[in-house]
Amino acid sequence: MSRSKALQYYITARLLLAPLMLWTITTVVFLLLRATPGDPADAILGIRAPEAAKVALREQLGLNDPLWLQYCNYLKDLLHFNLGSSLTSRGLPVWDVIQQYFPATVELSFFSMAVAVVIGVSVGIVSASLPGTWFDVGGRLFGIITYSLPLFWVGMVLQLIFSVQLGWFPLGTRFPISASPPPSLTGLYTLDSLLTGNFGLFFTALYYLALPSTTLGILLSGIFERIVRVNLKQTLQADYVEAARARGIPEKTIIISHAFKNALIPVITVLGLTFAALLGGAVLTEVTFSWPGLGNRLYEAISLRDYPTVQGIMVFFGIIVTIASILIDLINAYIDPRIRY
């Protein structure tokens, strides 16, 4: 079987398995939510609300139905691409909730990944290029420290220093309350500002993004530093690299043009899956920085037992991860012709 045919069969199989994965995610989330202590009626109306009002609300939401009937009704809605209505957003459809909050998560994820890749790859290349030196030791320490530090703790410390004490960065918002955001074309403030030619709003949006995206990016960069360092160090010991050195090719050219490309395959895989996970809701970052993204909205929905919103967002996240994993396979196959599926 040719390589292209094998890749087509692999992608087809993955696409056929995607509904099974989404069904599994939906089922697990459905059961876990209902096994969690707490009553959505108490979360929505309050503990002191009249019992008659709670009973009426449970009946309205279908919570008095048997569990199997609730599950069947939810699967039927999913088959019709209906994620239901949020219990805590005045009956707003879950698709509208996703549309409202997802752009903030995309923006935060994109700039965080940009910071992580630039710092992590740069430190990894320097560390692998100078083995046994202080640069190598420093790169390894950087990777270990950034990988092991808890995000919520670092986020709170940096907010205390740079926002509360020094007053350099804002807290708990995506754009100044006193200013109007750019016209909503994509929902991404930075991109909308550029599309409308308003560079002042662009730099304002960047300013509000700076602290959360830099914090998340630096902590993620440790992953890329370690992967780049290990793979590039192994690649630099390969026979074709030694042959290139014997031909007198400069070391810088060998690293960038020869070794780095072959060391890039695992980096792309981790990059894609990490970005998909961030799009799936950088929950800790968004909650820590009060960033109005989909991860923060998911946290609120879980706290308030908003079943439709949690289930809908999790299905949406599952779709993102499925698409991202397939795209990663395609990119890897394009970069490295030796890959077979």
What's the quick description here?
The protein contains 15 helices and no strands.
Write the layout of secondary structure elements.
Blueprint: H1 3-35, H2 40-45, H3 51-61, H4 67-79, H5 94-129, H6 134-148, H7 151-165, H8 189-195, H9 199-235, H10 239-246, H11 251-262, H12 264-279, H13 283-288, H14 294-303, H15 307-335
Helix pairs in contact: 1-15, 5-6, 5-9, 5-12, 5-15, 6-9, 7-9, 8-9, 9-11, 9-12, 12-15, 14-15
- How many H/I helices? 15
CATH fold descriptor of the largest domain = MetI-like fold
- Could you give the distance between the termini? 11 Å
Give the helices and strands as they follow along the chain: HHHHHHHHHHHHHHH
**What is the CATH class designation of the largest domain?**
Mainly Alpha
Q: Structural class from helices and strands?
A: mainly alpha
How many strand segments?
0
3D shape:
globular
Q: In percent, how helical is the residue content?
A: over 70%
Main sheet makeup: none
Overall pLDDT? 80
Q: Could you give me the name of the CATH homologous superfamily of the largest domain?
A: MetI-like
Low-confidence stretches: none
Integer count of domains: 2
Q: Give the second-level CATH assignment, the architecture of the largest domain.
A: Orthogonal Bundle
Oligomer: single chain
Description:
- Helices cover 74% and strands 0% of the residues.
- The chain is mainly alpha-helical and 341 residues long.
- The chain has 15 helices and no strands.
- It is globular and about 85 Å long.
- It has helices at residues 3-35, 40-45, 51-61, 67-79, 94-129, 134-148, 151-165, 189-195, 199-235, 239-246, 251-262, 264-279, 283-288, 294-303, 307-335.
- It has two domains: 3-79; 95-335, Orthogonal Bundle (MetI-like fold).
